[in-house]
Amino acid sequence: MKHTHDLLSRQLDVLAAAVGLILAFLLFFLRFYSSQIYITTIPVLLGVACLLYLFIAWYDRQETELPRLGVAFTKLSVAAVAVGIAGLLLIALQAGTRTPLFLLSSGVVASLILFQALFTDEAEFRPWLLLAEITALAVVVRFVGLYTTPGFIGIDSWTHIGEYAASILRAGSLSAISDVKYVAAPLYHLLVVVATEFLGVSMRQALFLTVGTVMSVFFLLVYSIARFFVTPRWAVFAVGLFAVGDHIVRWGLHLIPTSLGLALFLGVVYALVRVFHLDATARDYAAVLFFGIGVILTHQVSAFVTLVLLLSAGVATLLFAFDVMPRTGWSSVRATDPKKLLGVVGVYTVALAVNWMLTPISGTSFVTRMLVLVQVTLARSAGFLNLAGGSSSAAAGAQGPLAPYIPYINELGFFLLFFLTVFGSLVVLNRNRLRESGVTLIVATVGMMVFAYILPVFGIRTFLPGRWIAFMYVPMVVIGTVGLYALSRNLPSRGIVAAVVVFALVFPGAMLVADKATIDDPVFDNYTPRYSNTESELAAINTIQATNPSPSAPIYTDHPYRAMITRAGGHLAVPIELNDRGEPVAQGVTVYREYQSSGASMYATGEGDAVVIRDFSAREICPSDQNLLYDNGDVLMCSVATG
C-alpha cells in the first residue's frame, strides 16, 4: 500500500496521462457509430494532448523562456491596439452591424494584445495597461452588437424584460410574477427595474447599462484567479482568452439571468481559490457564500453549476484530507480546513434546496418539476448516441458546399481550448503543482462536461447543456493557461514560439466568428440562424395580433421568428411544416419575412422536433391563391382562402 501511495505521489500525472490515452483509444471507435462533431474530434485531441505530456515527462530538457521584444514593440503595439479599437468603431458606424470584417478585425486586435502579454519586455510589462486594452475591446465588441440591433438580441430577453421586469415595474412588487419561477430568483429583474427607475431610462437602456456593463468587465476577475497559478503576464493572457470566448461573448449580447449568473459564478470561483491559497478567514468563507447565494437568487441553472463547483471543491478537499491525494508541492505548504469548507458547501446546498422547493413552476415546485422532466426524458428519449440536437451549430440542418465544415469552424476555438485544458490538467496533477484548488478546477471541468456534452450523447438535455459551457470556460481557461505556460518552459524555444504565435493568431478570430458569438448577425448567415430582428420584423410583430383573423389559432412562420412572435407579440406561433417534397404546407395564417429567402430560417419536418434550414420565396410561402392580410415591404401575412 505504501509503495502504491509513493508511486501515486511521484507519477500521478503520468498515470493520468496513460489513462487518458487509453480512454481516447476506446472513444476513437465511436466514430464508426456516429459522425457527430464531438465524437469524431474529442478523442483525437485527448489522445494527442496525453501523448504530448508523456513525451515532455520523459524529455530531457532545460527550462526555457519566451523571447522578449524591446521598447519599440511595446509602444507600437499599444498604439496599434488603440488605432484598431477606434477602427472597429468606424467599421461599425459605417456598416450599422457587426460585419465579418468587424469580427475578424476584432480578432486581430485581440491577437495583438495576446502578443503584448507574452512578448513584452519585463521592464515594459504593465498588467493594468493590457487589462485596460482587453476591457476596451470587450466593451466595443459587445456594445456595438447591443446598440446596432433593434430591440433585444436573443429570444428570452423579450420575456424577462418585456414581461417579467415590466410587470414588476408596473405593480411595484414581486407579486406580479408570483406564479413564475423567477419570483424566487429575481435579482436580475430587480436590478433592471431599479436602474430604470433610478436612471430614468427605458428598460432596454437600463439592461444595457447594468447587466451589459457587468458582462463587459466581469472577466477581469480571471486575472485574480489565474495569479494564484501563473505569473502576471500569463494571467493577463488568460483574461484575453476568456474575454473573447464565444459563449462569453454570447452572454454579453443575449443579456438574460444566465449572464448575471455567470458573473456571480466567477466571484464564487475567485473566493474559493482564495480559500485554498491563503490563510482563509471567516470573511473568505463568507465571500464564497455571498456570491453563491447571489447566484441562487439570480438563475436556477447557474445555481446548479455552482453546486457542481462547490461539490468538486468538497471532493478535492476530502481527497487530500484522507491522504488519497498525496500532499506534495504547494499542498504541503498550506492545507485547507476540510470542516470549514464542507460547512460552506453544506450551507449552500441547503439554501439551494430550500429555494428550489419554494420556487413555483407549472403549479408545483421547481424540484418536483425537474424530477418529473428527468423521468420523462429517461423514459422517452434517453439512449446511447441519441444525439438530439447533437451538432453545436444549426448549420447541421443546412445544405450547401460549406455546410459540412461550418460546425468545425464554429468549434475550432473550443477544440483548441479543450486540448490545452487536457494538457494543463496533467500539469496541475504533477507533484510539484498538486493542490486542492487545481484538483477542484479539474473535477469541476469534468463535472460540467458531463452535463454539457456527455448526457446529451444519451439524449438527456433536461439540464439545458448549452448554458453550462460559458461557466465551464472559467476553469478551462485557467487550466489551459497553466498548460500553455508549462509548454513554453519545456519545449525548444523555436517550436513553442511558433506554436504560441499560431495559437494567438487563430484562437481569438475563431472564437469571435463562431455561431454563439454572432447570434446578432452570424458570419455564415446562410447556415446559422440570426437571433435578432430588423425594424420591419419588429413592427410586424406589433401589428400581427390585431390583423390576425383567427386570434385563437397558431400562426405559422419560420424559426426563430415564430419564437419572437410568441415572446414579444404574445401570440402562439409554430414552425411552418414541410411536406415530403420539402415544400411548405399551407396551414391557416402564415407569416413570411424576407429573411426566409436569404437567411438560415428553419422549418419543421414533421418528424418529432426535427428542423431543417431552407430558403423560400415570398410566392412559395404566400401563394397568389391565399388572402394577403398584411404587408410592410419585408414581412407578409397571408391566410388560406376559405369558401
Which percent range fits the helix content? 55-70%
N→C terminal distance:
87 Å
Number of helices: 24
Shape, per Cα inertia axes: globular
Rounded average pLDDT? 89
Low-confidence stretches: 388-396
- Describe the main β-sheet briefly: 5 strands, mixed
Total strands: the figure is: 9
Protein name: Glycosyltransferase RgtA/B/C/D-like domain-containing protein
Keywords: Membrane, Transmembrane, Transmembrane helix
Transmembrane segments: 12-30, 36-59, 71-95, 101-119, 128-148, 182-200, 207-231, 251-276, 288-321, 341-358, 370-388, 408-429, 441-464, 470-488, 495-514
List keywords for this structure.
643 residues; mainly alpha; five-stranded mixed sheet; two-stranded antiparallel ribbon; 24 helices; 62% helix
